[in-house]
Amino acid sequence: MTGPTTTISRRTNVNIWSDTGSNDQKWSITSLGTNQQVKSLNNLSYMLNANTSTWNCDVYTSNADTYINFILVSTGVYRLQLASDTTKYLTAEGTTSGSNVKWAALNSTTAQQWKITTVSTNDSGSSVATDADQLRKEFQKVGDYDGAYGLQCVDIVRWYVDTYTTLNSTSGHGKDLVANLANKYGLTISSTPKAPGIFSVAGRYHTWGCSGSTYGHTGVVVSVNTTKKTATVIHTGSSLADENPNSWKSDYSYPASGVTFVYLGDYMK
Q1: Which of 25, 87, 147, 218 gets the highest tally of CB atoms within 10 A of its CB?
Q2: What pLDDT digit, counting tens, does each position of 208-217 carry?
Q3: What's the CA gap between 63 and 65, in Å, rounded?
Q4: How far apart are the first and last CA of the chain?
Q5: Number of domains in the chain
Q6: Which of 229, 230, 207, 226 minimizes the C-alpha distance to 218?
Q7: Does residue 122 have a pLDDT over 60?
Q8: Distance CA 222, CA 212 (A)
Q9: In a domain, 229, yes or no
Q10: Confidence at residue 124, expressed as pLDDT on a 0 to 100 scale
Q11: Can you give the residue range of the structural domain that contains 103?
């Protein structure tokens, strides 16, 4: 699928083309889940969009019609469902270079089936920001990020926010970090995780890695399985001081009482 060339503007058309290896055909996707944006590597400010007056597919800056649900068909192959109108799916109108791409009602043809291939790019680094194993390796070098009270759960979240997003982390206990960051930047707090993002567990809850402490718990959401309703997270705690690795990688189910989330995907470096 080919998007805008070097010169990008709103309403630039999207079509299919034979593989050229150029950034016209490379797209930044944070997670193959729900409510995702598919951003052009030529300019990450522009992304797949539905022109709802014609149902053509073009690129546009972020708005309600640029969010997409990825629906797995087979290994590496997905239908792209428009989140703002779930009756519409990304559809190729032909099979040759230059064929138009639009949004249309669901059908059983391969015109609505898209193969997602991971490539090496020079994008913003969002792929690293959702690679749990790589993040744990990087955090191993950091440990007590804020220099207060030794290794604590807040260290990995504050480090992640400062390192991988354009936001500045906030202080507080584990139970506070989602609310504090949301209040500082006007972000939406949700009971449903999205990646990349962070979570907080309220005090005294025994869930999502929290031991029931009055200070709660916090960590980083790196991926979400919307079918199984599970999220993969990385988190840490004082018991991992001087350990290698000094963080955990865990899968937890949602929704969960006492657990809140904030999405950071719109603020990645």
Answers
A1: 218
A2: 999 999 999 9
A3: 5
A4: 25
A5: 2
A6: 207
A7: no
A8: 23
A9: yes
A10: 39
A11: 23-115
